[in-house]
């Protein structure tokens, strides 16, 4: 048993003791690892609920969520609007439904709320208007038919395949000699190019340029065109050109 596993075992033992003494009522865990590792934790039988990410842009845990529900765990969704990405205007997202919606955020929330295996949805809110909008959307219930859900999933899968034409995020191109996080930058660009989340993409890229982004990386102008990344890219992408296009599009 490694140090991390030992620490986790000790923490769980303490939590189970606290539950037995009536200090807490339930034991839950928040999941941030790769989707394929979740079931090992669920099958331990030591947890009652899970906090997990799931949204229109990231459905990697869709099968896991169903598995958790099948095993009797309560499921709490985090990031229903993709960490704010789906809060920005996008005609691509708005057009996923033929029925009128007021915003991209509403579409994102309705999609998550329509999943029968999710019990609670946690959405970050900055002001009373966002609170009122979320409450209004939640009061609708699902509001999505099986046909609509299937249509949305099909269209988002097509968008995902389109995004992978620009970058699959395999990470073979890194490390870059200039420490540019190439897959991260291309991911920001795809939010604009594929999903129409231009406002959010520009904001994210410009924060990165100022050193304020969550992921620290030099911007695309720091590329010296050495070409090392292009020799390692299995898709043979014109990475240098795409970096230049990204900066030209998102820097202002």
What does this structure look like?
- There is one protein chain.
- The relative contact order is 0.09.
- The mean pLDDT is 88.
- This protein is globular.
- It contains eleven helices and four strands.
- It is α/β, with parallel strands linked by helices and 252 residues long.
- The chain has helices at residues 3-20, 38-42, 62-70, 91-94, 104-113, 128-139, 146-166, 182-193, 198-209, 228-232, 239-250; strands at residues 28-30, 49-53, 74-78, 120-122.
- It has a four-stranded parallel sheet.
- α5 packs across α6, α8 (182-193) packs antiparallel against α9 and α8 (182-193) packs across α11 (239-250).
List keywords for this structure.
252 residues; alpha/beta; four-stranded parallel beta sheet; 4 strands; globular
List the SSEs and their pairings.
Layout: H1 3-20, E1 28-30, H2 38-42, E2 49-53, H3 62-70, E3 74-78, H4 91-94, H5 104-113, E4 120-122, H6 128-139, H7 146-166, H8 182-193, H9 198-209, H10 228-232, H11 239-250
Helix pairs in contact: 5-6, 8-9, 8-11
C-alpha termini separation? 51 Å
Count of DSSP-assigned helices = 11
What strand order characterises the main sheet? 1-2-3-4
| Poorly predicted tracts of residues | none
Mean model confidence by pLDDT:
88
Number of strands: 4
Tell me the major beta sheet: 4 strands, parallel
Cα Rg: 21 Å
Coarse morphology: globular
Helix share, percent: 40-55%
Q: What's the SSE pattern? A: HEHEHEHHEHHHHHH
Structural class: alpha/beta
Strand content: 5-15%
């Amino acid at each position: 048993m490694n140090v991390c596993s030992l620490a986790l075992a000790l923490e769980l033992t303490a939590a189970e003791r606290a539950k037995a003494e009536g200090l807490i009522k339930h034991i839950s865990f928040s999941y941030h690892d790769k989707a394929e590792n979740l079931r090992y934790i669920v099958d331990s039988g030591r947890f009652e609920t899970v906090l997990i990410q799931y949204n229109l842009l990231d459905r990697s845990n869709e099968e896991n969520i169903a598995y958790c529900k099948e095993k009797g765990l309560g499921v709490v969704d985090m990031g229903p609007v993709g960490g704010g990405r789906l809060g920005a205007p996008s005609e691509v997202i708005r057009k996923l439904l033929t029925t009128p919606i007021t915003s991209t955020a509403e579409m994102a929330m309705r999609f998550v709320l329509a999943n029968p295996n999710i019990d609670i949805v946690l959405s970050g809110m900055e002001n009373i208007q966002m609170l009122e909008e979320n409450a209004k959307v939640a009061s609708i219930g699902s509001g999505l038919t099986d046909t609509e859900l299937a249509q949305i999933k099909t269209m988002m899968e097509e968008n995902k395949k389109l995004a992978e034409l620009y970058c699959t995020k395999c990470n073979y191109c890194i490390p870059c000699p200039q420490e540019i996080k190439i897959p991260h930058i291309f991911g920001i660009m795809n939010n604009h190019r594929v999903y129409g989340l231009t406002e959010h993409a520009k904001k994210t890229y410009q924060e990165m340029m100022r050193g304020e982004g969550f992921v620290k990386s030099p911007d695309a102008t720091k590329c010296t065109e050495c070409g090392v990344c292009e020799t390692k890219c299995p898709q043979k992408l014109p990475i240098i050109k795409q970096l230049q296009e990204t900066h030209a599009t998102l820097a202002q």
